[in-house]
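Z., the sequence and structure:
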Amino acid sequence: MNLILQASAGNELFGFLPLIMIVSVMYLFFFRPQMKRQKEEKIFRTEVKKGSRVVTTSGIHGKILEVAENYIILESENSRLKLEKSAISKELSAQYSAAEK
């Protein structure tokens, strides 16, 4: 009787093994890259400077005129916009300088 109980306990462990593997794969391929991307975006937003050309999350392209703690002033097509720093999606200064050459 004891052998049967011990054998069934071992099978329960193998029953959880696929679930553990699926969770591990999801973490490695989905959650970890997303956390890395969020960390890079946070660093980018803290290091943004005056004169950088950026695109916002809503697709507005412009040049940063002023940087404050929580917001930026963005110039785009002869208009000025006051935006939260979190609205900045990516920097385009390198692309603009390469296109001008």
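The chain has two domains: 1-47, 49-101. DSSP finds two helices and five strands in the chain.

Let me know what you think.
H.
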